[in-house]
Write a structure and sequence with these properties.
The chain has eight helices and 15 strands. It is α+β, with helices and mostly antiparallel strands.
């Protein structure tokens, strides 16, 4: 017969008192079932099984170290443009595939080793404890520290030296993957920022006509852009080199040149300055012939070309570098050397 036909079977038992009132029996229908009995693992009772688990965990950590080393080796060994066929993915970059696989294995083995360690060797005894106030009493703090020490002992961190040492090795090597990736920032600049294609005897070539410049080609009040002889737009490194070597050529009456060195480095009032702004490297292209000021269109840094190209307004930190020029036997303008200071914005090693 179902309980629905006799619902009184599911109700708490009742008793009548001597005064005829009804009272419910003092029984808790939802008693605390408590924790199930602890089941020992095979590693808890068999030291040989514990040793096997220890070796398996150490193997995972060691495999992680080897994968990290393979990651670094792959980065060095595979060129960027090499492609391989991987079934069923297809043709993919050998470098990307090797880096992804080795780094994935290195991280997975660390996680798998930690999980296997926790599930087989660390203590798995469940402990029930009452909640306490946020601000613990000294006795509670002492108990927490004691529990921490007990947990550290139960984890067998000090006892299982093979696991500890291999884990330290894996954790120490994995960050090297990120350090190696810094190589993608490009080759070290060395002293490349301090030198351009300009050198003694290099002709000043007009950027528009691609012809060498004579002093007569530069009129007072005009602005001409020049590049080094031999640098062509179809060259592979044209953009990189022109970003350092681009010149502004202007002609100023010698009597209007205020800076003594500027006058010495010019030829008959023709002066050559770097076109690259010393703020963030924008190309300067706005020239005011009455004041001999040039303006950077990006952030309005203004330089006085009649006074050593010093900064008179804006965020630029220093003057434009000047290129010393002269005239060769054929009457063409030529450089008498490279810039004596780096062009463009300041950088850490500039000094």
């Amino acid at each position: 017969m179902s309980s629905q036909e006799n619902p009184e079977e599911t109700l708490p038992s009742v008793q009548e008192t001597e005064h005829g009132s009804v009272a419910v029996a003092d029984e808790n229908p939802f008693a605390d079932p408590g924790l199930p009995p602890h089941q020992h693992r095979v590693q808890d009772i068999d030291e040989r099984a514990a040793r096997r688990s220890e070796r398996a965990i150490a193997f995972l950590f060691t495999l992680s170290m080897l994968a990290t080393v393979a990651f670094i080796a792959s980065y060095v060994a595979f060129p960027v443009d090499k492609r391989v066929y991987i079934f069923p993915i297809g043709h993919i970059s050998a470098l990307n595939f090797s880096l992804g696989m080795t780094l994935g294995i290195a991280l997975f083995c660390i996680g798998a080793g930690a999980v296997h360690w926790a599930r087989t060797l660390m203590s798995d005894v469940e402990v029930a404890d009452d909640r306490h106030a946020i601000e613990a009493e000294p006795e509670v703090k002492a108990k927490v520290m004691a529990d921490f020490k007990a947990g550290a002992a139960e984890s067998q961190f000090g006892r299982r030296k093979l696991i500890r040492n291999t884990m330290f090795g894996a954790m120490a090597l994995v960050p090297l993957s990120g350090v190696v990736l810094l190589r993608d920032l490009g080759p070290l600049p060395e002293d490349k920022l301090r030198h351009t294609l300009w050198g003694k005897g290099k002709l000043l070539v007009n950027m528009n006509t691609n012809e060498p410049l004579r002093p007569s080609d530069v009129q007072v009040g005009s602005l001409t852009f020049a590049k080094p002889e031999g640098l062509e737009e179809h060259d592979h490194d044209f953009q990189k080199e022109i970003a350092k070597a681009a010149l502004m050529i202007v002609r100023i009456q010698p009597d209007n040149i205020k800076d003594k060195r500027e006058l010495e480095w010019s030829h008959d009032g023709v002066v050559a300055y770097s076109k690259i702004c010393t703020h963030v490297g924008c190309p300067i292209s706005l020239y005011e012939q009455q004041t001999h000021h040039v303006l950077c269109p990006c952030h309005q840094s203004t330089f006085d070309l009649s006074d050593g190209a010093r900064v008179i307004f804006g965020p630029a930190g220093h003057a434009l570098p000047q290129l010393r020029i002269g005239v060769n036997d054929e009457g063409y303008l030529e450089a008498l050397g490279d810039f004596e200071e780096p062009v463009g914005p300041a950088f850490w090693e500039r000094g």
